[in-house]
Design goal:
Strand order of the largest sheet: 2-10-1-11
Strand content: 15-25%
Radius of gyration: 17 Å
Order of helices and strands: EHEEEEHEEEEEHE
Helix content: 10-25%
Distance between the termini: 9 Å
Number of strands: 11
Structural class: alpha+beta
Number of helices: 3
Number of domains: 2
Length: about 180
């Protein structure tokens, strides 16, 4: 069995907001006992993360079957989050809701824009259907989600996060849009 992760990414936080919002959320998680304040080597391939706290179960669904075996990584820089090794089959325009298949003729436009966003913090792709330029973080994806954000909370090897917990965490993010991704490596 591989390592599993769940990410709550703040799609609206900019570089200037990321650290402030991350500190607010981590302070809340520590106060609730969901994670510990100290940082240890508890997350896969990351700098030290926050290990589970004494009340970690407040974050997960009621039907959890095991305690977490990993911790929380907090990302506060431009990051492209993915659900794992697979890539989406289509990108969905937030303006016209058209799904654009990511075939060999379209994928390079998205790939180049994703790389530009990662390098500069700004890039868009023009929707082939409505012709509107759409910022990379604003696109949504079919079955294999992606998220492009300056702020993300990545829980490694935790039972499924509960809907109420995700809503409370999102409520600390100044009304920002969020994406929830999960996957495995």
């Amino acid at each position: 069995m591989g390592d599993r992760f769940q990410v709550i990414a703040d799609l609206d936080a900019g570089a200037a907001d990321a650290r402030r919002l991350a500190d607010r959320v981590v302070a809340w998680l520590v106060a609730e006992g969901v994670v510990r304040a100290e940082r240890t080597a508890c997350v896969l391939g990351e700098p030290p993360g926050h290990p589970p706290g004494p009340h970690w179960e407040r974050a997960v669904r009621d039907d959890w079957d095991r305690p977490p075996s990993g911790g929380l990584a907090v990302h506060t820089r431009r990051t492209g989050f993915t659900s794992g090794a697979d890539m989406p089959d289509a990108a969905v325009c937030p303006r016209c809701t058209a799904a654009t298949p990511l075939d060999d003729s379209i994928w390079p436009r998205f790939s180049d824009a994703m790389r530009a966003w990662h390098d500069t913090g700004s890039a868009s792709v023009t929707c082939p259907v409505c012709a509107a330029p759409v910022a990379v973080p604003d696109w949504t994806w079919d079955e294999c989600p992606l998220a492009f954000a300056h702020l993300g909370f990545e829980f490694w090897n935790w039972p499924e996060l509960g809907d109420a917990f995700r809503a409370r965490l999102t409520g600390l993010l100044d009304g920002h849009r969020t994406a929830y991704l999960w996957g495995a490596y």
